[in-house]
Design brief:
185 residues; globular; alpha+beta
């Protein structure tokens, strides 16, 4: 394995037509020699309020306050991405990006809740076996870019794919303006 992609964003290229990942933005949370785990940041489940599934986290849920489809693997399981307050002196040891980490749901909410500024709840995740993600990146199915902290909890998830591409340098920014179906161009 080359360099770990943990903490990076995977932005689906136009060649990635799998409906699970079409025009998605995925935060890579873990990546090592055994594989990778990521969360799709731009697939809100409109009729699934966090309040209905994890009421303790509801007051902290970033707008739009719904559960997100994190990926096609184990969609019946919940993962929670949490951004810790700036006043938390020591960033979490399991940080993915700066003060944002995957929360350990076995830890009592009473302990972790007060340290959190906001959360996003995901149903399922995106997973890759050893070498699979590297191969997909090499085949240019994904653009690998650095995240802004605002990407992780955006209030406009439907615009995230275009927004991330638009701010990239060079030719990559042009992809943001491609039609969803290039045959109608």
């Amino acid at each position: 394995m080359a360099e770990s992609l943990a903490g990076k964003l995977l932005v689906a290229s136009l060649s990635l037509t799998d409906p699970n990942f079409f025009r998605t933005v995925v935060l890579v949370c873990m990546h090592d020699g055994e594989g990778a785990l990521g969360l799709v940041l731009n697939r809100p489940l409109e009729n699934e309020p966090v309040e209905d599934h994890m009421p303790g986290f509801a007051p902290l849920a970033a707008h739009p306050g719904v559960v997100f489809h994190g990926g096609p693997v184990q969609t019946g399981s919940a993962l929670v991405l949490g951004r810790h307050h700036d006043w938390v002196i020591t960033p979490p040891t399991n940080a993915v990006v700066r003060r944002t980490a995957l929360l350990d749901l076995a830890q009592p909410f009473e302990e972790v809740g007060p340290t959190l500024a906001e959360v996003r709840v995901f149903a399922g995740y995106a997973g890759w076996t050893a070498g699979q993600l590297e191969s997909e990146v090499e085949q240019e199915a994904w653009f690998v870019v650095d995240p802004l902290e605002t990407d992780l909890f955006t209030s406009e998830p439907d615009e995230l794919w275009r927004s991330v591409l638009r701010r990239q340098p060079g030719k990559l920014a042009m992809f943001a303006f491609a039609p969803a179906d290039p045959s109608v161009n």
